[in-house]
Amino acid sequence: MLAAHNCRFKDCTHREEPGCAVFQIVKDGLISEERLDSYQRLTEELIFESKKSEIGLKRLEKEKYRKRSVDIKEYKKFMGKP
Ligand SMILES: [Zn+2]
To answer: Ligand 1 being an ion, which residues bring their Cβ within 5 A of it?
Structure first.
């Protein structure tokens, strides 16, 4: 959680947003990828909950799972880990 307070974006994924403090910290190796991943799961749930009322639930769920699998793949590639 620590770095989240430094992040300027309310709906940030902390993965690739320019200027994201959390992303910068992971890049610098100050917190582990695993830790970020569990933190992101938490924030994604919160974002998901807040969007749920606006968009159709089924559509959003589909979107969510598709996007997550792609994101993690891209993220690991970027971090240089298998
Ligand atoms: Zn962020």
So the answer is: 7, 12, 14, 20, 22
Distance CA 15, CA 39 (A): 12
Distance, CA 61 to ligand 1 centroid (Å)? 22
Question: At 37, is the secondary structure helix, strand, or coil?
Answer: helix
Report how many domains make up the chain: 1
Rounded to two decimals, what is the model's pTM? 0.34
Q: Which CATH number covers residue 32?
A: 1.10.40
CA of 65 to the centre of ligand 1 (A): 20
Q: Rounded mean pLDDT of 58-73?
A: 70
Higher pLDDT among residues 78 and 21, named by residue = 21
Q: Tokens for 32?
A: 């582990």
Residue range of the domain that includes 16: 2-79
